[in-house]
Amino acid sequence: MLAADTAVPDRANTLLLGANATESAFKRSPLADYRILHLAVHGFASTSDPNRAALVLAKDATAGEDGLLQAAEIVQLKLNADLVILSACDTAVGPVQGEEGIATLSRAFLLAGARTVISTLWSVDDAFSLFLMKQFYQHLAAHEPAPYALAGAKRDMLRKYGSAAVPYYWAGYSIEGAFDRAVVHRGTQEKANVTKSKRAN
């Protein structure tokens, strides 16, 4: 998702694209240094065993990684991100676990240290997601807090496509966490990690 790199320009940004977007490369990155993490990948939920829910990255057999970044692995990451964007299917889907709430991939990132996570409540469309994320990062670059940026991107979608913007294809993006300030600050740069597999959901 190059829109993220454009919105947050910094030579220290990391782009993991295509075959380079391996699970091992992502884990080896200095994740605690990144203020924004954007993962445009496949994703799947598990309603029976939430720890098996995963984001699908490229395999790296030499590093012993199968390419499935599972929830049980995510919670062990050391994050310090203001914002994590999970541009993948079903990342806010999971079973209810009593008082702990719903066990999802998004919650795993919150437990790992992310302050705000954007995730999806169902399967989303590639083309509509691309437009939505481009607009989201434009709003983010204008120093809008993430909830306002996401809402603004959704309004842009309706203005652009009108009745053709069937909500099923893009309205599943939701946000949770602490978001009382802008992620991209005036006069400063926020280091970003953008991970994109061969095909994003």
Written account of the structure:
Strand 6 (83-86), helix 4 (105-111) and strand 7 (116-120) form a beta-alpha-beta unit. It is built from 6 helices and 9 strands; from the N terminus they run H-E-H-E-E-E-E-H-E-H-E-H-H-E-E. It has a 6-stranded mixed sheet with strand order 1-9-2-6-7-8, sandwiched between helices. It has a 3-stranded antiparallel sheet with strand order 3-4-5. With 201 residues, the chain is of the alpha/beta class.
What key attributes describe this structure?
six-stranded mixed sheet, single chain, alpha/beta, three-stranded antiparallel sheet, 6 helices, 18% strand
Instruction: Please tell me the CATH architecture by its name.
Output: 3-Layer(aba) Sandwich
Overall mean pLDDT: 88
Domain unit count: 1
Q: What sequence of helices (H) and strands (E) makes up the elements? A: HEHEEEEHEHEHHEE
Query: Which term fits the overall shape?
Result: globular
Helix content: 25-40%
Briefly note the structural class of the backbone. alpha/beta
Q: Give a count of the beta strands, DSSP E runs of length 2 or more.
A: 9
Q: Class in CATH?
A: Alpha Beta
**Which regions contain 5 or more consecutive residues with pLDDT less than 50?**
none
CATH fold assignment = Rossmann fold
Distance between the termini: 12 Å
Largest sheet: 6 strands, mixed
DSSP strand content: 15-25%
Strands in their spatial order, largest beta sheet:
1-9-2-6-7-8
Rg measurement, Å: 16 Å
Number of helices: 6
